[in-house]
């Protein structure tokens, strides 16, 4: 059943909070490379020190798709992701780490996350803030899983800094090596989606006000 999604006007307070989270997303994306540049080592098997992919970036794409006008919903996470990639190249001193041959496909996956958020908000009935948050978290977990499967299939098929054998065993090895990234992505969805919802999702009072205004307009026409 369709759920009419009401886009939230961005007040000054919401814009400030959103800008702070976008900045946090950029810092989270670049931090591992800054740590590398300082000569520190991060063990990808040690969850206590593994910070890669724990970021508001993918949750931003989900909630933007559910809560913002379409053009802004695409431009905000995509622009943030691109800016993060650019900073990775600057901070690490290796532009090839930031931009690689199949990078446009990754940006396509980001747009796919936005689409998931939009579809969840449009077609899954949700009446309360908690229900809408649950829908977006669910969309986020699905999106993180699809991102994990598709991006690592691309790495396996097209090659990257790590070349896996083009066998089923090589594909499984690629997936296993990416599990820490995937795990951090899932945690990010659970942590950051509710935060973005609180900033971007409309309140029930606002919805009621907009609905009453729309009814008045219809009655006057």
UniProtKB/TrEMBL annotation:
InterPro entries associated with the record: DUF6580 (IPR046487)
Q: Name one Pfam family in it.
A: DUF6580
Q: Which domain of life is it from?
A: Bacteria
Q: Which residues cross the membrane?
A: 12-35, 47-65, 72-92, 104-121, 133-159, 179-201
Q: Which UniProt keywords apply?
A: Membrane, Transmembrane, Transmembrane helix
Query: Which protein, by its recorded name, is this?
Result: ECF transporter S component
